[in-house]
Specification:
The protein is α+β, with helices and mostly antiparallel strands. It contains nine helices and eight strands.
Length: 222
Amino acid sequence: MTDFCPEGYLPTEAAIVAAAERWFYDEFARIETAAAAGRQTGADKGVDALALALSQAQIPDELRLAVQSLLSEVVHRLRNFLHLGKLTSYYFGDDGRQPVSRAYWATAQADGAIESSTYWPFGQPSRWYEERPHYALFFEQSELDALFNERSAESSAFPAAKMKDLVAALRSLDHLPNRKKQREALRTLPEFSHYHLTDEIFREAERQIPRKPGRKPTHPKH
């Protein structure tokens, strides 16, 4: 796979971090600050800081889980926009630039595509000796910026008066296995999707709903 990136495009893997910083600024800043505190090298901000948090052994598990949770949520949101047609991904072949179909993003073949910046039009090979065509996957920077700007314009501060509604919605999601899944579901509900829901807001709502006996904590105890 070539490392070449056409001018005006961004590998989908790099877009994950860009989206995390735009959509979840508070969470991103906290993670980056914590990662920098444990940094032993002169790594840059953004991609390097998050990669460090996932790769270095001395990084606390709590921070590692926070990074994984944030990036997972961003990938889920990007994939949803791709499936809805609000964003398009592209690859380059002998016939020039080609768009990836919206339908692709609802299939199991799309799992891991954004994270790896790789498009397998016929699926990944199931045997080591198989060879199948695959291409580097990109977003057009202008389209990505337009989506970021649209989301920024739509998002607004979460009003304190809506907290009781958020708590009620959280109670209705008690069937989901953990807080992470509940938060993901809450962010997609129409009545909350246009608000900027931070970790602090979620924690306030969660404090008002005691955990059921036997439910595992979100983070492992040390």
